[in-house]
Amino acid sequence: MSSAAGPASDPQRLLADTRELAKRVRRAQRVTWSALLVLGVAILLSIPFYEYGHNVVAYCQARAGGRVCTRYSTLAFWYWPVALVVAYVLIGAIFVRRARSRGVGARVRPYVIGGIVLVAAATLVAVWDLQHPLSWFALGGGRLQPGSAAGARLYRLVGPLGVIGLGLLVLARVERSRAVAAFSVVYLVTVAATAPTGLHPGRVFLPGLLVPGLVLLAGSLLFAVLERPAATGAP
Amino acid sequence: MTDHPVIGLNDVVHQRVRLGILAVTHEAKRVEFGFLRATLDLTAGNLSQHLGVLERAGLIELEKGYDGRRPRTWVTLTKTGGTALRDELAALKALIRQLER
């Protein structure tokens, strides 16, 4: 304990030592890199589901001047809730295993539960959106035009990729890490910026998945380096 | 007359090693004996003595078990321990304010 250098009666030193100890414990608890790695891989694994998934046209509704339908890949649609729940359970297991090996408990439950709740909410929004084509844009009171960049970007933030970023903000809160919070914001901006626009995006989904997935993998590498001193300092 | 902040200091908690144990256990749900020993840079005997004092005061709970074949002792902060830590930190801050006046 660093306070060995000073008298126990010095309240400022005691407080400073207590804060330093708390920081050391938090550093020992962090396994951010593994969460980013699992989520990055989950995004990249979704690409074949979009590429080779069977596209269906359904939920057609009569609108002025014709019909509006939803065209979507069923495999890609159901990939997300399954893959993300599996990812959060896996992340929870990695955190617990790492915590046991380091001898310090991890506060991972709020992140795992928060992540799964966000996935459930995003799935409900997606199901509603499937059954009500273009209704999402109507929510903007006419300001969001179908196929517009603003509408597509907002929609991405409530979709699976956005949910991953919101979950990372929960992780930042749990780990009390400004670095994770800043990274989450960068990731969310990337997700919004790479949203496929237009009514018939075709294969433009690829950069929208590839870029956020690679950002998470790069973040995983970065945090693995940042968290390394804590790993070597732990018993 | 207003009470001086030193009155709020708890003799059991105020000792620097025991305050350190409470601070570490407050951050983690459970802490293993070896992690505490390495983090606080103590000998096993010294740490055991302080843990005994805190356990008798009801501020922590000790749980002995095995991780595979290796015996382990886990330390958990009790609700009373959490309150005592918060009160101690508040008293220390009040004392600093008093001294800086």
Question: How would the blueprint of this fold be written?
Answer:
The complex is a heterodimer of chains A (235) and B (101).
Chain A: H1 11-29, H2 32-52, E1 55-63, E2 66-73, H3 74-102, H4 109-131, H5 135-138, H6 149-157, H7 160-175, H8 178-193, H9 205-226, H10 228-233
Antiparallel strand pairs in A: 1-2
Helix pairs in contact in A: 2-3, 2-9, 3-4, 4-7, 6-8, 7-8, 8-9
Chain B: H1 11-14, H2 16-27, E1 31-32, H3 33-40, H4 44-56, E2 60-67, E3 70-77, H5 79-100
Antiparallel strand pairs in B: 1-3, 2-3
Q: Level of helix content of chain A?
A: over 70%
Radius of gyration of chain B: 15 Å
Gross CATH architecture of chain B: Orthogonal Bundle
Most residues in contact, chain pair and counts: A-B, 27 and 32 residues
Structural class of chain A: mainly alpha
Count of strand segments of chain B: 3
Q: Given the helix and strand composition of chain B, which structural class is it?
A: alpha+beta
CATH class of chain B: Mainly Alpha
Query: How much helical structure, as a percent, in the residues of chain B?
Result: 55-70%
Share in β-strands of chain B: 15-25%
Largest sheet of chain A: 2 strands, antiparallel
- Alpha carbon gap, first and last residue of chain A: 15 Å
Mean pLDDT of chain A: 82
Describe this structure in words.
The complex is a heterodimer of chains A (235) and B (101). Chain A has 235 residues and is mainly alpha-helical. In chain A, 70% of the residues lie in helices and 7% in strands. Chain A is built from 10 helices and 2 strands. Chain A has a two-stranded antiparallel sheet. Chain A is elongated. In chain A, 36% of the residues are buried. Chain B starts with 10 loop residues before the first helix and ends with a helix. Chain B has a 3-stranded antiparallel sheet with strand order 1-3-2. Chain B has one domain: Winged helix-like DNA-binding domain superfamily/Winged helix DNA-binding domain (Arc Repressor Mutant, subunit A), CATH 1.10.10. The interface between A and B is medium-sized, with 27 and 32 residues.
